[in-house]
Amino acid sequence: MNSANETPDSNLIPALLACLDGLLASDAVPEGLMRGEIGWLGDGLSDPQRESTGARRAENRNEALNLASAARGLLSTLEVGGEIPADSALQLYRALDDAVSRIGAAMRQAQADRIRGLYVIIDPEVTGGRDPLDIARGGRGRGAPGGARAGGV
Prior knowledge:
With 153 residues, this protein is an all-alpha fold. It is built from five helices and no strands. The chain has helices at residues 12-24, 39-44, 61-80, 86-114, 132-142.
């Protein structure tokens, strides 16, 4: 139950801090990212007696994205409720957006690194009756010509 001077939104601050702690402790977030941007949070809003939730860090990039999303939602609620000043919230929004952008870029690069080899796209409608597998084998043997029409291998 809330005390008389405690608003329901102020109970969201520990949840926001837990999300941020989990992000900062994660290997998925590039070193140094967000640390400066959330410094104001430690000075102005956090309870000096609180224990860090860093042990509950995001274990992978998907979890880090989920924490960032949750932090953004909590931040929005706290800003609208007047618990966090708009200028400070803007700073944290930018840091969260940067974190999401960098984590997403790392995820896309990891996916791109998994793609190896030659990929031949064949439209069976324009093969002139030739077997698409034969066309693909021909592309492998001679290299797929850049800009060639399907079936023109």
